[in-house]
Model the fold of this input.
Amino acid sequence: MSKKSRKKEGPALLSAAGLVRFYEESDVGLKLKPHVLIGIMVAFTITIIALSKLMPIT
Done:
């Protein structure tokens, strides 16, 4: 078995009830690349600024 094919295992966390192992990888949730998330935030910010200029609160 090569080094690349071995699965990385982190150290187990000790608790009062015994050994408990936590895995860092999770399949739950939406996965976005950082540049996509930044683009969404910039577009949202520009939209909010544009709407505030069009419809000022009086």
In short: Strands lie at 13-15, 18-20.
